[in-house]
Specification:
single chain; alpha/beta; Aminopeptidase; 8-stranded mixed beta sheet; globular; binds zinc ion
């Protein structure tokens, strides 16, 4: 296993966006993990950093590209969106992307992939060609949003949702334009969007999330 860290882009305010690459010569799976798409969802950033720590000790047979925090300006300033006030999970170049919005919390940006953070993520996605993507968020209602892609991972994902006691859903009750889940459906890439609990239970549940996800990604 070869471990390297590289800068994949620069935020609006000039911060380095970094990716940790765990490369196996003949990987079983290639897993892309991203945290901090929404900068104020620190639970996902904590999980991503813990997964890096665990993989350094025991990398297993898969290759990983891990971006612990995509929206670093948002993390620094406790913002959901990036410094241009664009929601990075509405800015991906999906077929249904439109520049209009009704809720100012979910601004899609002036054009699809207009933001430097989105471009950095897409560059990794296109060059790494993952067989699975995991995006780590947090929300008051915790759940796993699963786009099964080729259905190869259905059983493992079901076990993960059971071990974390998380509801497993395959779509949101509303259409999400420009989101990772929509993008990965269009491109048939199995993708998990994990909403960790964003409440006072998190310090107690954090260890279980880190342990279960470490087992999940090294066991695929
Ligand atoms: Zn989020």
């Amino acid at each position: 296993m070869i471990l390297s860290i590289r800068q994949i882009g620069t935020t609006v305010l000039g911060q380095s966006i970094d990716c940790w690459d765990f490369n196996q010569i003949n990987p079983q799976e290639k897993i892309l993990i991203v945290g901090g798409v929404h900068g104020d969802e620190e639970e996902g950033i904590q999980i991503a950093n813990a997964l890096i720590r665990n993989l350094v000790q025991n990398p297993g047979v898969n290759s990983y590209a891990i971006i612990p925090c995509l929206n670093k300006d948002g993390e620094t300033l406790s913002l959901r969106s990036n410094y241009n006030d664009v929601d990075l999970n509405r800015n991906l170049p999906t077929k249904n992307w439109i520049p209009t919005f009704t809720n100012p919390r979910y601004k899609p940006g002036p054009s699809a992939a207009s933001e430097p953070e989105t471009i950095a993520f897409l560059n990794v996605l296109i060059s790494f060609r993952p067989t699975m993507i995991i995006s780590l968020h947090s929300f008051s209602e915790s759940l796993i949003l699963y786009n099964p892609g080729n259905r190869k991972f259905d059983e493992s994902v079901s076990l993960l949702s059971q071990s974390l006691s998380l509801k497993l859903v395959d779509k949101m009750p509303y259409e999400v334009l420009g989101s990772l889940n929509t993008y990965s459906k269009e491109n048939a890439i199995p993708t998990l969007t994990i909403e960790a609990p964003r409440d006072q239970t998190w310090p107690l549940k954090k260890y279980l999330f880190i342990q279960s996800l470490t087992q999940f990604i090294t066991g695929l």
